[in-house]
Design a protein that fits this description.
Distance between the termini: 41 Å
Structural class: alpha+beta
Largest sheet: 2 strands, antiparallel
Number of strands: 2
Oligomer: single chain
Strand order of the largest sheet: 1-2
Length: 67
């Protein structure tokens, strides 16, 4: 039971850190032209902070998975 609790706490800490808005791209770490994508239809389900290059790569990867 303790192992399960520790695992759940570790995962929640990981997701909390990954979702923080620090002004840096979640993929490459750059801080230039970074936008927060909230997962809405405007961002086609993309959630997090991305620079334009990484957002394009992520969206193209998602489209390739659909085909």
């Amino acid at each position: 039971m303790k192992k399960l609790l520790v695992c759940v706490l570790a995962l929640s800490a990981l997701f909390a850190f990954a979702a923080c808005k620090d002004g840096k791209c979640d993929e490459c770490g750059t801080d230039q032209n970074v936008e927060y994508c909230d997962g809405s239809d405007e961002y086609m389900g993309l959630e997090g902070e991305y620079c334009p290059e990484c957002a394009t790569k992520a969206l193209l990867g998602d489209l390739a998975d659909l085909m």
